[in-house]
Amino acid sequence: MPLLQAEDLILGYNSHVIVDRLNFKVEKGDYLCIVGNNGSGKTTLMRTILGLQDPLGGKILFGDGLKKNEIGYLPQQNEIQKDFPASVEEIVLSGCQGRCGLRPFYSSAEKALARENMTKMGIEHLSKKSFFRISGGQKQRVLLARALCATRKVLLLDEPVSGLDPQGTSEMYELIDSLRKEGVTILMISHDIDAALTYSSHILHIGAEVFFGTKDEYLKSRAGKKFLLSKDEEDQ
After folding, report:
1. Smaller CB count within 10 Å for the chain: N or C?
2. Element at 84 (helix H, strand E)
3. Are residues 187 and 34 in contact, defined by beta-carbon separation less than 8 angstroms?
4. Spans of the chain, pLDDT less than 50
5. pTM of the model
6. Nearest Cα to 144, choosing from 111, 119, 181?
């Protein structure tokens, strides 16, 4: 069975349907990019996968022993995250909360895991710094280290390069790709179609037309051709 599979999934709020009868699957080691226009249901899909929102119909199945609390999540940056009054180390450690159970403290192993992930993200020298006072690119590295404390299986990334300068964007994409090469399965929402086609193994396009398949298949599909044309027109 795939690591994650959607079967006839219906997404929306109350009785308002945004996405109808969505089917796709994610195998271990895949790099799935989720693309589509604003309001097409991309973030709603991620919230549903995480169990933060119930689907209106259909189901999401987990395989290979994967549980919802074993999925790391890097949300879009928002004002609360930018101004969060905590140190870098405290935020990274908070990714271990799912491992603590009823314990009101972090174990030495969890603290070691946080240090390991800060080192992996190149932010160990920032551990005592206020999250509020570091750059946007550093914030995203902190949040990625936090997500890695929650899991080494699957990462869900919602616009991880939003607000970053070109250098920070390139560095973040390379970090994510290095994690994929280490065996972490990646699901990423992105408006950057060029990056999606560069790094992904599969594309899920949701909107008026729905497509799921490899990136090569996407380039040949009607949904892919129309979306790429619209993006070209936006850039002109």
Report:
1. C
2. none
3. yes
4. 79-80
5. 0.88
6. 119
